[in-house]
Design goal:
The N terminus is likely disordered. Helices cover 1% and strands 56% of the residues. The protein is mostly beta strands.
Length: 379
């Protein structure tokens, strides 16, 4: 069952842009007893249904993750690990799960794998598990002998660059090397920290820290091993602790809370807006570089992706197909072009960023008469 995507028809009809940066929130919700994929515009609070997830009758909390290069959204459902195309909202595939209990799926770019925890009747300890998406096979990374339980409302995040998987366990805020299973961080006072998301720019973990009966929006500096309480917005009571996301480009944190999905300023803890249409939104991810190339029957197709974003060394620019002539330009926030280079007969470009000072920039792409722009952060 397809839903007509009328929200974008007035914006993109009869234009020749290769792409434009359009932030969106992608997730699922229930519509007439069916699980439906949807997009939300965070600027207008408009929700647009995309497609029914055929065969999906139940979903599991804290299992959503995103491969922003391929545009694949992962979610644990009654079918297993269900893979959804973020541009069409349709199910691509479902990988069966044989474990009785497994949770916390987070996608890792370099290994093209999902990582999660499973329990076993043979051991009181949890096991770190890897799902290789290329082979669609599960394998145990390590038995975590020190970890016997997760918090009552488990939450998970991953440091892509340093290969560390973070979660809240019986020993506190815990970081685990996904290659070896060794514990890299263990902060015992992290038991009151929830709804966590890792920010690569600040090397901090943002989340909600419970103090008494209220929640403080806080970040935990992994280098200093200390909390910084940024604010206690009035009435800020998360409904589902693990339903969160991070907008690293615009320094915003998203959490499902009273009244809808709240967007919080990372630097001040101020609630910038509350998206009422997201009150029933489940397992969402933030799409910082969600972009369109063209429209066919009012339906967005293809993709133009910049990753990793933020980055400190390089970025990859992936187009929808090979182009004969490609010009790549870097612009600063003051509108000054600081770099330009040409490529040909390719769909993927690698750009070295080491010559740039830290900050926010725009990448302009001109390809065979089409053009586009994406914002990225160098740190």
């Amino acid at each position: 069952m397809k839903f007509k995507v009328s929200l974008f028809s007035g914006l993109f009809f009869c234009i020749s842009l290769l792409s434009a940066q359009v932030d969106r929130i992608f997730g699922v919700h229930w519509v007439n007893m069916k699980v439906v994929s949807a997009l939300v515009n965070p600027n207008t609070d408009v929700l647009t249904d995309l497609d029914t997830l055929d065969g999906v009758s139940s979903i599991y909390f804290s299992t959503a993750s995103l491969d922003r290069v391929k545009g694949h959204y992962f979610l644990r459902t009654n079918l297993g690990v269900t893979i959804v195309d973020i541009y069409t909202g349709s199910v691509i595939n479902s990988i069966p799960i044989t474990y009785n209990f497994i949770t916390g799926f987070r996608y890792h770019e370099n290994t093209n794998s999902l990582y999660a925890f499973r329990s076993s009747t043979q051991s009181s300890s949890l096991t770190l598990v890897r799902l290789d998406l290329a082979t669609q096979t599960f394998s145990d990374v390590a038995v975590m002998t020190d970890i016997t339980s997760l918090t009552s409302q488990p939450c998970f995040t991953i440091d892509q660059e340093n290969d560390v998987f973070y979660t809240m366990t019986n020993i506190g805020l815990t970081g685990i090397d996904i290659n070896t299973g060794l514990i890299t961080d263990s902060i015992s006072n992290g038991a009151d920290f929830s709804a966590i998301n890792y920010d690569p720019v600040s090397s901090s973990i943002y989340g909600m820290r419970k103090v008494g009966s209220s929640f403080n929006f806080s970040n935990f500096d992994l280098d200093l091993e200390q909390y910084d309480d940024l604010g206690t917005p009035g009435g800020f009571m998360p409904i589902v602790h693990e339903v969160t996301a991070m907008d690293t480009i615009n320094d915003r944190y998203l959490v499902q809370a009273g009244g809808g999905l709240r967007i919080v300023d990372n630097t001040t803890g101020t609630v910038l807006s509350t998206l009422a249409t997201c009150l029933g939104f489940k397992e969402f991810v933030y799409l910082e570089d969600y972009v369109y190339l063209s429209l066919v029957n009012n339906s967005p197709i293809n993709e133009y992706v910049v990753y990793p974003n933020p980055s400190k060394d390089f970025v990859n620019i992936v187009l929808d197909k090979d182009y004969a002539d490609i010009k790549l330009q870097l612009w600063d926030m003051q509108g000054k072009m600081i770099y330009s280079t040409d490529f040909s007969e390719t769909s993927k470009v690698n750009l070295d960023l080491q010559f740039l000072v830290d900050g926010t920039y725009f990448i302009h792409v001109l390809a065979d008469g089409k053009n586009g722009r994406v914002k990225f952060v160098k740190y």
